[in-house]
Task: structure prediction
Amino acid sequence: MGVHLREHALKLAMRLAKRLDRRQPDPGELGSTAIRQILVISCTAIGDTLMSTPAIRSLRLAYPHARLTLLVHPAYRELFARLPGVDQLMGYRGNWKGFARLAWTLRQLRPDLAVILHGNEPQATPLAYLSGARWVFKLPNAGNPFRFLLSNCEPQLRWEDFRHGIEQRLATAALAGGAATGWEMDMPVGYDARQQVSDWLAERGIANHQRVVGLQAGASTVSRRWPASRLAELARRLLATDPELAIVLTGSPAEFGLNQRIAAEIASPRAVVSAGALPLPLWPALLARMQLLVTPDTGALHLAVAVNTPVVALFAVSDWQRSGPATALERHTVIQKWRTCTPCLSKRCPYPEPPCMDLISVDEVEAACRQRLEQPA
Result:
């Protein structure tokens, strides 16, 4: 069945189900002990799920007695396995594969409340509704083809109505009866993970007393990447002026080749590659060990912010005020340039090294790094 035909058939089925629906939830349930089972959906990228953690905390504060199940992308289940306030993790890729089976599984949980913090449509809203939850909340709701299934059909709000992704998620939690809380993201770092990272670095000649600067080359789209040659030049400059400094190139296993090329261009034994060498659950501990991370708009940025590591964040295609650091801004430096192409093709950027990111010079990133490194830890 074609994608559009499948979506059309699902919409017809959902309209019929909604018409026959006899659920009449009492608004007094929200924020009360009547909510015993909560389903939270945040099943996209690492950064998206991290930005959902303040909203999860909001729900946990409001419903300390409830069991909270979090739907995440299956590739990141281990990373979020110890997330505070979550009783159960389930994996879902946010597409049609396994949709019907998961809908049946969620229905067995019998959630009272479903909160969609970040999920792909047209699957997320029908999935939450099919779970049987009496309440289903999602923002933004404007433009959602399944808005009629939401408990918050009106007023219609767009992405542009929120300053930041964290604000959008907290607003969704507030609709669901969530308690007030801060914007800080949650990511626990255990002692064992810190020790494993320390041992891994020691095996590569990086002692505990050495300062470590992380360089993140990859991003979810090519359009967000800073040129690899500039990262290499930045590393050479930093290493040349500090004989005790070490560089760690971070990334996913898929970015191993890219990082290897950058390491070869740096040509220093004090530059090591962690991509493909350290498992994802150790990423938070690795970033927590760093004095600084230089990164584009990607999951590593949000992980670093979550574990209180200063970042020099590089933006052009995306707007840092919507997806960049949102707390403790005095600890971070953001370099924001502008889009050079009209229209911007973003995820379909044809340039291997986007001209908008090319506007960021090595000089200004080096200056930002040195300013951060001069500050006390």
In short: Residues 3-20 form the longest helix (18 residues). The chain has a mean pLDDT of 95.
